Structure to design on (241 residues):
């Protein structure tokens, strides 16, 4: 979703995976989920465009979103040298100043419509809302601060997409289970402080839409799990065990 002008025919814009039975010199090594690379092609970015920017790493208030850019804490996946230019770095520095700009605007007495318009000039709100409802639905415990990707196609308006997803549907880092009665906290990092202040109704409407069209229901999710299970097959599961 969102108003991108570039074509998405070549890209998934997320690290879509597929199951593999891995062998090394004819010895079975196990079942793995191999993911598409965090590459410019998968993000639909042009090699020579210095404003097609993809950030990966520790992307939080302390490292990016509130004025301080800790360059060593994240990677600029795209563009790479020699296409990494001052314009690229200026766009990232500009992103780091958005929170201060929005704070000053709100403090000036601007009404909610004006603040929302300013926010929408800086972020693809449709992308942020989708990420938010997805984050809550799958209980993505590890889906902010680090395991998300931020990207732009013009150096001004930024979007977000998921990554990693090893701690979802209650699964913890070490195989422990998170109780279903223990909800996630709201996203508050970066622009999400503003999203949850001004877009609560939009979040509820988007969630309801995805529930009503059966994207967010039991049968749809179980169908995805069954599809993966059947692609692997019992023989390989026995070998893995």
């Amino acid at each position: 979703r969102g108003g991108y002008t570039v074509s998405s025919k070549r890209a998934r814009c997320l690290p879509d995976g597929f199951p593999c039975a891995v062998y090394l010199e004819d010895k079975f090594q196990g079942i793995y989920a191999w993911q598409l690379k965090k590459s410019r092609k998968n993000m639909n970015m042009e090699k020579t465009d210095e404003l097609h920017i993809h950030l990966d790493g520790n992307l939080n208030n302390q490292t990016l979103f509130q004025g301080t850019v800790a360059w060593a804490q994240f990677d600029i996946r795209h563009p790479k040298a020699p296409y990494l230019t001052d314009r690229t770095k200026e766009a990232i520095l500009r992103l780091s100043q958005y929170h201060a700009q929005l704070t000053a605007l709100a403090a000036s007495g601007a009404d909610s419509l004006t603040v929302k318009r300013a926010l929408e000039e800086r972020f693809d709100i449709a992308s942020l809302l989708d990420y938010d409802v997805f984050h809550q639905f799958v209980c993505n415990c590890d889906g902010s601060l680090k395991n998300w990707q931020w990207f732009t196609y013009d150096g001004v308006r930024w979007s977000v997409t998921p990554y990693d997803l090893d701690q979802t549907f209650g699964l913890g880092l070490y195989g422990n289970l998170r109780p279903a009665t223990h909800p996630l906290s709201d996203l508050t990092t970066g622009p999400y402080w503003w999203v949850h202040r001004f877009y609560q109704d939009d979040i509820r409407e988007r969630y309801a839409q995805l529930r009503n069209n059966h994207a967010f229901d039991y049968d749809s999710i179980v169908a995805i799990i069954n599809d993966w299970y059947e692609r692997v097959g019992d023989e390989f599961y026995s070998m893995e065990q």
In short: Strands lie at 17-24, 27-35, 53-57, 74-78, 148-152, 158-162. The radius of gyration is 20 Å. The CA atoms of residues 43 and 93 lie 21 Å apart.
